[in-house]
Amino acid sequence: MPFVWLLVYYRYKEIQIHIIMLEDSKEELQNNVGGDENSETTDAKTVSEKSTEIESNNSEEISSNDKQGDKEILDEIEETNAEDAEDNDNHQRHEIPLLDYHAMSMENLVGELQRLVKNEKVQAIKKHVDGIKYEFDLKFQEFLEHKKEEFITNGGNEIDFRYNSVTKRQFNEVYSDYREKRDAYYKNLEQNLQSNLEKRIQIIEELKGLVNVEEDINTTYKNFKDLQENWRNAGPIPRTEYNNVWRTYHHHIEIFYDFLHLNRELRDLDFKHNLEEKLKLIVRANALANEPDLNKAFRELQTLHKIWKEDIGPVGKEHREQIWEEFSNATKVLHQRRQDYYKELDKVYEVNLEKKHKIISQIKEIAENTSSNHKELQKQIKQIEALREEFFKAGKVPQKYNEQTWTTFKDAVKTFNKSKNAFYKNLKREQQDNLDKKRALLDIALKTKDSEDWDIATKEMKRIQGEWKTIGHVPRKYSDKIWNEFKSACNHYFDRLHALKNQSSKEELENLEHKTACLNKLKEFQLSGDRSKDLAEIKGFINEWKKYGHVPFKKKNINNKFNTILDAIFRKLDISKQESELLKYGDKIQKLSASDNENAIYKERLFIRRKIDESKNEIRQLENNLQFFSNASEDNPLVKNVLKNINNQKESLNTWKAKLKKLNILENSINKEDENTSNEEE
Hints:
Helix 13 packs antiparallel against helix 14 (about 455-470). By secondary structure, this protein is an all-alpha fold. The radius of gyration is 57 Å and the shape is rod-shaped. The protein has helices at about 5-35, 45-60, 70-85, 105-120, 125-155, 165-210, 215-230, 240-260, 265-285, 295-310, 315-370, 375-395, 400-450, 455-470, 475-525, 530-545, 555-570, 575-595, 600-625, 635-680. About 80% of the residues lie in helices and about 0% in strands.
């Protein structure tokens, strides 16, 4: 028969037994008392009165005091004792502290659950496990909603959201272990409880039959005591049947003691013993008023009620109300202490509620003013995390406000997370754009790093380095990689450039030494008076000078010194500036001719033409400026200066044209040589 149906069956049986007992007590009293009101046993009263008295005395706990508080504490004691009676190890749950699970993180909750399941009796930790699971589920649901928001914010579809939580998996494993142990325990316990329930019902049946047996009263009394002992050793029964079965048992105990009026001596001895024991319990109960540990005192009170109820039988009617009232009064004192304690606790909970409301307000304020700056937003995230920790550590609130407070807190955090996620979604888009820009610059760097067009490549490298600095952050997972690649490409190029410059610098220092020596010789040069001979020697100086190439940038002024001395010598030889320039240029023409480099000639032509254009533009601009002085005399200093500049530019223009002519002659000469060479080959 299934466990539930078995309980229903026995409950039905108990009701039947109760009815039969009332009928039996009526019949037995009529037979034994004989209706003689003057008999020493005629204090039994009528059947109706006796039924009422039996119901009243069945549970001495049910006092005449109808105050709800008294009933509640008695119900609580009965319920707790029923739970403890189911298994001798159940009482251990009172010794396991209930921690503030609300203030714990998910990881700590898992750790505490592991400790309980591993070290404590499985039947003693139900309340603890239920509290841990409740808090864990709340926190994990909040955590999961936060992760889902991030997933959706980053472009995911809600239907595709999955999250693998190591902490949740660990919790499920430990909780599953707890359930397996719990189910195995109760499966084994169920068989024992049902067997014990049957034993107790059988004892009740035998107890009921004692008043119908025709035998010596001493023998009956001995059998009665044996049944009491059997009852004490019958073992635990289902907690749901505990109080009902006990009331039925106690009911028949009362009937038996009424039956014992035929042998008042045996009854009075029992009543006296029971009275002494119950008075001792009253003394112990009164002493609990001075116990500082309220929880310990209440547990002791539960034990006293259990002893009063289960281990000690009834007392004489003349003492029943009095001693129960004294015992109840001791219970009421402790109950009042608990009520006062809970009132103070409620005040603490109200303070906690105010704290949590304040924390929620702070979270809402941050959520309504979410920063649009990454650095500031990170500060706000830390503030929110600190407020969350503070919220959980603020303690419990009144039960009626618990769910509402939690929902308000969760919504406030959720609002902030939405704003935060929206910001980082936009930031992620910006960072992706920045990544694309930096990848484009990286491509340029990789293509340029091996270039030998130093002037153009150097400018380009410097440009992309500057542009790189103006581009914002990229996604973290790409940041180091792309930067290292870009830096490596730039370093590769500039290492090559510096190596070249170092080599050039060495050559330039050597050129400086040679040019310094040449300059010193030119300073000592004296004209012989033979113009042709002097020009030949001057050309020698020029050729030697051109041969040495560039000098260090800081020393390039040596070229001006050389040209200044040459100009002074040319003036002594009465050679015009243009002639001197062409004379100097002749050496370059010879070098171009010797190199036979079309590209070099092409670049030289572009250079000269640009100079010609610059001179023409300058002359045009000066002549336009001169129109502003149309009414001014030529003696005007400003006019003189403009005219002088025009003449200088015209001279420079003629010089550049002459250089271009020489270059054209050189190019034609080279072309003719190439044609002749081609014809010879044919």
